[in-house]
Amino acid sequence: MKPLIIGSRGSRLALIQTQLIVDSLKKEYPLLDIQIRVIKTTGDHLEEQPIRDIDQRGIFTKEIENKLLEGEIDLAVHSLKDLQVELHPRLVIAAIPPREDPRDCWISLQHPHPSSLQTGAIVVTGSPRRANQLLRKRPDLRIVPVRGNVESRLRKLRENREWQGTVLALAGIKRLGIDISSFFCTPLSMDWMLPAPGQGALALQARVEDKHTQSLVKHLNDFSTACAVTAERVFLHELGGGCRTAVGARAEVEGSRLILEGIWWPQQAIEPKEGKVVGEIHRAEELGKKLADLLKNL
Asked: In the CATH scheme, what is the code of domain 104-187?
């Protein structure tokens, strides 16, 4: 049997996430030869440049998708929040494994929560979604853009004592397993911070015609996670969103019901539009569209 070649970004977090998939596949197929191929993306090359200044979609995924299309890899492992909603017609999401905690987390050396910050305190984040939601609660804060992986952001926070805190995805902190005992690490409630659509979830991507690879990974798919992130991503897509758009969404599954909350800042808007819809879990796409239409018409 030929080896299964998996494409991944080269960051420590990306490789840990890819190794999780490798380990899961090895449990099912102990004799399968699996190889990881590291692929550098535009987002990796432009690590210090603010995302809002990069005029390109798919900055963390496009090069990996190209290698998949060219047949150099068989499977791609992506952070789902980085993956474009509209896929290339020859590519398919073959599986979405169970999701890690989707919440954002407040990180600070001195302050347990952004509500305790003094007026004018500097918070660093490169995400318009995070910045807008922080300023909605605390319009007196100063937001300074920052980029880089989790470790580099924590290092910068330690080194620059003028910076009072930042916001990171809790899933990344958990998967990295890094020691953050010197920091306050406070998960933010949904009334403070709705996460990025798809945050905490992984996407396993394959070629449409490669039924063999699709069959290898289909057992890794988690139905509830897939429905939840589908609703979130359709909501984002209907609003024309991407990394530079201030859109937050969280879908939760309760039995056969799906509850989708969303928040959106239209371009140049000072105040957001927000709402919630509830429906049957198998109507995830419809719910995403329904919430987007609701917000557009507010």
From this structure: 3.40.190.10
The two three-digit tokens of residue 267, written as one number: 């371009």
Tell the CATH superfamily of the 223-298 domain.
Porphobilinogen deaminase, C-terminal domain (3.30.160.40)
- Give the count of alpha carbons within 13 A of 114, CB side only: 31
CA distances from 47 to 11, 54, 160, 189 (A): 11, 11, 19, 29
**DSSP-assigned letters across all residues of 95-124:** E-PPPPP--EEEEESS-SSGGGPPTT-EEE
* Chain segment 93-121, per-residue pLDDT in tens: 999 999 999 999 999 999 999 999 999 99
Domain 1-98+200-221 fold is D-Maltodextrin-Binding Protein; domain 2 (3.40.190)
Neighbours of 159 (CB within 10 A): 8
pTM of the predicted model, to two decimals?
0.92
23 is catalytic: no
Fold agreement (104-187, 223-298):
no
Structure tokens, 260: 């989708």
The active-site residue out of 74, 82, 104, 210 is 82
For residue 265, give the nearest of 70, 129, 115 by alpha carbon. 129
